[in-house]
Amino acid sequence: MTKPNDTYSFRLDVIAFMIIAVSFVVRYWFVASGQLNLVQDEAQYWDWIRRPQLSYYSKGPLIAWVISLWCKVFGSTELGVRFGSIIGMTGIQAALYIGISRVWREYRLALYALFVSATMILLNGLGILATTDNPLLLCWTVAFFALSAATRNKPDYTPGNLPFVILGICVAIGILGKYMMLAFVGLGVIYAAILHLRGQLPARFWRRFALASLVGTVVGMLPIILWNMQNDWVGFKHVAGQAAGKPKPFEIRIGPFFEMFGAQIGLMAPWWAVAIAVATWRAIKKGIVGPIGSFDCKYRHTLQALLFFLPLWAIITFWSLKSHTEANWTAAAFMAGAILGGMGLKAWWENPRRKTRGKVLLAGIAAGLTLMIYVTPILPIPAEINMTNRLKGWDSLGQQVADLKQAAFDNPDNVFVVSDKYDITSELAFYTPGQPLTFCAWIGDRRMNQYDIWPGPEVGQDAIFVREHHRTEGISPKITKMFDSVEKEVYIHSMSNGQPMREFTLYVCKGFNGFWPRNNSDRF
User: Fold this and answer.
1) CA distance 415 to 402
2) Euclidean distance between CA atoms 79 and 87, whole angstroms
3) Residue 179 and residue 235: Cα distance in Å, rounded?
4) 355: Cβ–Cβ under 8 A, 6 or more apart, which residues?
5) Over the chain, what is the mean pLDDT?
6) 110/96 Cα distance (integer angstroms)
7) Predicted confidence (pLDDT) per residue in 453-497, tens digit
8) Helix, strand, coil percentages, rounded to 5, for the chain
9) In sequence order, which residues have a C-beta less than 8 Å from that of residue 57 and are 6 or more positions away?
10) Within 10 A of 159 (CB to CB), how many other CB atoms are there?
């Protein structure tokens, strides 16, 4: 990686293949070896596949389709749920390398950006967990380079229709995965408008771009809109509620902002955060004083990477000053962030004054700490400081619920499992032996979720009601109203590798009478 010129070399492809292959093998081993139980949202997405619908409460249907496909191959196992993300991240890495090396024809930058992406904390997480961000990023990355091909401007050359077809397909599929894909179209308009003003946009671009974006958006949104029409628009209300947060007087949230900002640095990895920051500053300077009226591919590449990283990342990060945000909401920006990180790494690495020892040290730290992610769950870290503990022990909880079924009821087959939180409900659906249908009662002050849209249990059944923590304050009146009797409570710990994890209270409930609590508030 010290060769100064940027011409194609088969050696670069070999190194890229090795990086992608090793990343795939490590992710596959981690999931197949059962290091970590499903995260709550993963279990919920899996539960969706048992009730196929056009769309779902909080997301489009794509994640359910992906999980359903691989569960047909591997069964309803952790590997079946997560294999789509394992192979999806392989596709993201391949698209990133191929896009930079073949579409941009910046062969060495492609390798640097690939290495950055392979050692980013967030992208490694998205390559393990079954999240909506994984298929979104795959569509986003392919669409990004389709847009590059569609805006390639050379004398006597006009791009064909293929890049626009690919762009439209990616927009449609991406929206089915996550509504964030709509932001891609907006960023694409800004990017193309700047090129247009600088005289660097090819002929017939706008009409084809508008058609591809419109068709892609309509196709992607159609099943989501139809589902929302049938369900009082609850999905859109949920998204609007998440963006706006709870109504309250305006205030600057300094603490949550620094938490969000710190999380972003951690998800990038501090060394890549520095590389991205340096490359972003250089891109801003180049974008301001870049050439006007002449063809300059390096300028266009820098501008595109900048526009698809900085606005999206900054808006979401700084939105935490006003309202609640989640660290992964910036995930779509990380693909362009990896490119900027690759630009920063390339400039640093190929500096003639850079010593080999420094290069080896940086590469070793980045690769070594990335591998640490995959062994953290099995390291003997004290329970009180092990952040992965909240992701362990669900299989133990499911088994203890099954044991209580057998011990406390005359007819265990006539017992359903219910909780007051969607995350516990979904984990019990996956990890209770036999993977029964589970239910989420609307009790207390919480938001609506997908379980509230589905029918409740059948009259006449018994139940086990599961709540988090060891409860001593008594059970909700709504629960006692649901059953003929609530006979006893059982305090348990979920377990993992012989260590206690989380605390739960289990209630033995008999004779479901048909009352099913539903909340008609506007908390979506």
Assistant:
1) 10
2) 11
3) 11
4) none
5) 90
6) 7
7) 999 999 999 999 999 988 777 788 889 999 999 987 899 988 887
8) 60, 10, 30
9) 231, 234, 235, 238, 448, 449, 450, 452, 453
10) 20
- Neighbour order of strands in the sheet with 415-419: 438-440, 415-419, 462-468, 499-512, 483-496
Alpha-carbon distances of 450 from 51, 55, 234, 422, rounded to whole Å: 11, 10, 10, 8
The structure's pTM equals: 0.93
Tokens for 20, please give them.
């992608």
Q: Where are the alpha helices (DSSP H) in 33-132?
A: 40-48, 62-74, 78-98, 107-118, 121-126
> How far apart are the C-alpha atoms of 196 and 286, rounded to whole Å?
17
Candidates 123, 159, 116; CA nearest to 138 is 123
Residue that is written with structure tokens 């348990």 in the block: 492
What pLDDT score does 2 carry?
40
Rg of the chain taking only CA atoms, in angstroms: 25
Neighbours of 351 (CB within 10 A): 11
At residue 275, what are phi and psi to the nearest 5 degrees? -60, -40
Cα–Cα distance for residue pair 64/81, rounded to 1 Å: 9
How far apart are alpha carbons 97 and 332 in whole angstroms?
Answer: 17
Position of tokens 């044991």?
Answer: 403
Note the pLDDT tens digit of each residue in 274-324: 999 999 999 998 766 655 655 577 888 999 999 999 999 999 999 999 888
Report the 10 Å Cβ neighbour count for 262: 11
3-state secondary structure 296-333: CHHHHHHHHHHHCCHHHHHHHHHHCCCCCCCHHHHHHH
For 435, the token pair is 């993977």
Alpha helices in 418-511 (DSSP H): 422-431, 477-482
Q: How many CB atoms lie within 10 A of CB 148?
A: 20
Length of the chain: 524
β-strands 415-419, 438-440 pairing = parallel
Locus of tokens 């006009």:
158
Sign of CA dihedral 92, 98, 100, 106: positive
- CA–CA distance, 326 with 309 (Å, rounded to integer): 17
Q: Which residues contact 498 (CB under 8 A, 6 or more apart)?
A: none
383 vs 388: CA distance, rounded Å: 9
